[in-house]
Amino acid sequence: MMTVKILIVTGDAAESLEVLYPYQRLREEGYEVHIAAPARKQLRFVVHDFEPGFDTYTEKPGYTWPADLAFSEVEPSQYAAVVIPGGRAPEYLRNDAELRKILKSFFDADKPVAQICHGPLLTAAVGGLDGRHVTAYPALELDMQAAGAAFQDTETVVDGSLVSSRAWPDHPAWMREFLRVLRAESPAG
User: Fold this and answer.
1) Is the pTM of this model over 0.90?
2) Residues paired with 73 in a beta bridge
3) Residue-level pLDDT at 50
4) Known catalytic membership, residue 118
């Protein structure tokens, strides 16, 4: 039996927990997980947290982790689903034409997509949110509405094969719902 592959798309300044939690959780389920980035290199993740007196989150250096593939090496048809972590990475990754082609192919094929925090900035860039119900980091409510989505400030929203969540504190609900969708479409075997 062939192992089912899941793709995580990310880059430098991604939120450490939002990359590594789904990476480890999906591997635990028996999926083969590949991390793709603009280039094969050691990625530098960050930690976003909240501190008293700050109006928004703070950022500190996080873990480093190797990218398995460059976006230009990804063949989307080999993957059953894609995970889109947040952090600052989506801000600049949405300008990457190779990544936009990858993500568009997942939406065109109606494959499961898990997005969290600022990750929906990427799906918005390929028109994947128009007419959908989503959540995201709450500061992105206007961005989600501008992308044609109905925004809900709740720990997870499932709209067909699209599963979204606000941020790392919502991981249990996010992965529980994503795995429910994923198992129905592509069980790990």
Assistant:
1) yes
2) none
3) 87
4) yes
